[in-house]
Amino acid sequence: MKYHWEEKRLEFGINSYVFWAKKPEGKALVFIHGFNGGPYTTFKQFDVLLRNYKEFAGCDIFFYGYSASKSQIAALAKGFVKMLLVLEKECVELYNKSFKRVVLNPRNSNFKYDNIVIVSHSLGAILTRIALIEINKSDSELTKKFDMILYAPAHFGAHLSETYAILPLGILNLLASFKLGVKNSNDLRPSSKLIAKLLNDTKAIQSGKNYQFTIAKAVFWAEVEKVVIQQDYLLDKPAIVIEKTNHQTVCKPKTDNCDQFYLFKKAY
Fold first, then answer.
1. pTM score, two decimals?
2. Are the C-beta atoms of 162 and 230 separated by less than 8 Å?
């Protein structure tokens, strides 16, 4: 806790929160979970381990949450765009607002992030790519600040039977009643229009000049993967398989010596 202030809740998405750096250095980490994940559960232990390392001392650490059972993927991506734009344009106001009473170590009004690394799991990788492509349409200079680190990305689609198999019964009943989960799951089929459009949009950007934001700094796959399709994505670096992990555990480091965290630090 010595490098960051205690957890502060944010108004974005669902149960989103942040650990503000006490001595910010213009860097941010933004974690976004997958289909059935959450900001407190998907990247379990990252919030603890990161705050113990001096190399992340000046980095603001965000965890963004959403509900795939309440909104379609396009709307979820727009919600993530909103959050990323606030980090770029209103980060000082966001910092001040998160302190309910006394603002600790007020930040300079000119404070800006030089680099924002988005760490995504599963469906979160799709939302990240869609969001960055959307931002690039109006501000191609802004996207130069972004990087991606991906765990078990779903941008080539998912096996629907396995996707539903990992969901609790209560969630399955909720999805059935609102039919939103069915829509989002159909969008995750390897042959879906959404998957094809994302691929084509990314190819088009990579054929131009400003395309670096579409290339992940690192991609990590689970050794035992029954949910997403494992295939290297366009210009991304070849994926690294993390041994003795599955779709849920590939992004959950237990200690700072395990591959989930060691490889993350190396990529960052």
1. 0.92
2. no
Q: How far apart are CA 154 and CA 237, in angstroms?
A: 16
- The answer as to whether 137 is a domain residue is yes
Identity at 186, one-letter amino acid code: N
Q: Quote the number of domains for the chain.
A: 1
Q: CA–CA distance from 21 to each of 166, 202, 206 (Å)?
A: 35, 33, 34
Q: Which of 141, 114, 148 is nearest to 24 (CA)?
A: 114
Identify the domain containing residue 147 by its residue range. Answer: 8-267
In a domain, 240, yes or no: yes
Q: Is residue 210 part of a domain?
A: yes
Q: Is 184 helix (H, G, I), strand (E, B) or coil?
A: helix
Write out pLDDT tens, residues 70-128. Answer: 889 999 999 999 999 999 999 999 999 999 888 888 999 999 999 999 999 999 999 99
**The residue type at 243:** E
Average pLDDT over residues 33-56: 95
26 backbone φψ class: left, alpha, beta (φ>0; ψ -120 to 50): left
Q: What is the pLDDT of residue 1?
A: 56
Q: Is residue 72 a contact partner of residue 180, using CB atoms and an 8 Å limit?
A: yes
